[in-house]
Specification:
Rossmann fold; seven-stranded mixed beta sheet; 2 domains; alpha+beta; binds S-adenosylmethionine; Lipocalin; elongated; 6 helices
Length: 314
């Protein structure tokens, strides 16, 4: 007897085929895919915690990195990093390590994606953080595009960073802390400061190989602008061509015999060490040690106008 398959009574082979197809459908297709979430697109001028998001133009980013002299040896921290473009450029174009601190979590996720796409994710990190509650003292370069009042609120923190740290700001200055370098690119201003060593105060000088060297130095500084005098017993001579560039301190003095002494040294904490050269002579080592409490950095206290910009009570 020949058994036939009817539509109402499918035969065993047909059932098996159906079952197999069903099984395949279940294992390959699974549940219908959810529609892809639209990619996050930040909008220029969108609100941020303390300042809106507007990206720094590419040419200005390049100029900022140039002015800070960013190299592979640097750790660049961008305060309020937006879509991450400054940190990513520092890593991709200069080989630096970089960190972006950004309050908006969507911008943090976007920045991480862009760092991946740029192939620099291993050298760049983005943290969701408030710049006013973050420790970035390990940076060797700080970049920012904020607001005048926010720059001023950061000024004291920046001044406490390691001497030689470079700070670059797009658009806004730092009040009475004059920039070491400034540039204008179209409508954009760029400012660069080098954090000075704190040398204000009284120093005792030891230069055993230079008879007639001064005994004490009394140094004053207004941010990175250095002044002061040296005592050679009864003679007080004012520093000539004083220069403070990060940790490097240099100045000239005329000694009791009328000869010029050229000092060139590095300051670190309570010690200044380097060389002193009498005109026509050889450079010999000298060292100075603090002999009193550190002096105040002139100008570090905000002026009434600056307090107003910072939104602080005057
Ligand atoms: C003008 S945008 C600059 C973005 C980026 N640095 C650039 O130059 O392209 C300022 C950024 O700071 C962020 N921001 C505002 N207040 C902040 C805060 N307290 N902590 C961290 N980020 C903040 C904003 O969300 C915005 O992305």
């Amino acid at each position: 007897m020949i058994r036939t398959c009817s539509a109402r009574r499918p035969c065993m082979a047909g059932l098996l085929v159906l079952l197999a197809a069903l099984l395949a459908a279940c294992t390959t297709a699974g549940p219908a895919p959810a529609p892809a979430a639209p990619a996050y697109e930040p909008q220029r001028g969108q609100p941020g915690k303390d300042v809106v998001w507007v990206p720094t133009p590419d040419a200005v980013v390049t100029r900022m990195l140039d002015m800070a002299g960013v190299t592979a040896a640097d750790l660049v921290v961008d305060l309020g990093s937006g879509d991450g473009k400054i940190a990513i450029a520092a890593a991709r174009e200069r080989g630096a390590r970089a960190r972006g601190l950004e309050y908006n979590p969507d911008l943090v996720v976007l920045s991480r994606q862009r760092a991946q796409q740029a192939g620099v994710a291993a050298r760049v990190e983005f943290l969701q953080a408030d710049i006013f509650k973050s420790d970035f003292s390990d940076a060797s370069v700080v970049t920012m595009y904020l607001l005048p009042g926010l720059n001023l609120r950061l000024r004291e923190t920046l001044l406490r960073m390691k001497p030689g740290t470079r700070v670059v700001s797009h658009s806004f200055d730092m009040g009475t802390w004059e920039a070491d370098e400034r540039a204008y690119l179209g409508n954009a201003a760029v400012f660069m400061w080098t954090v000075p060593a704190h040398v204000a105060g009284l120093w005792a000088v030891h230069a055993p190989r230079l008879p007639g060297a001064p005994l004490t130095l009394r140094l004053e500084q207004h941010f990175q602008v250095l002044a002061g005098e040296a005592d050679f017993g009864p003679l007080s001579a004012f520093l000539m061509r004083p220069r403070l560039d990060g940790a490097r301190i240099a100045f000239t003095l005329r000694d009791t015999g009328g000869a010029l002494l050229q000092f060139d040294a590095l300051a670190a904490g309570d010690r200044i060490a380097g060389t002193v050269q009498r005109a026509g002579g050889r450079a010999v080592p000298f060292e100075a040690r603090r002999s009193g409490p550190p002096g105040a950095i002139g100008g570090a206290q905000p002026t009434a106008h600056e307090l107003r910009l910072m939104g602080e009570p005057i």
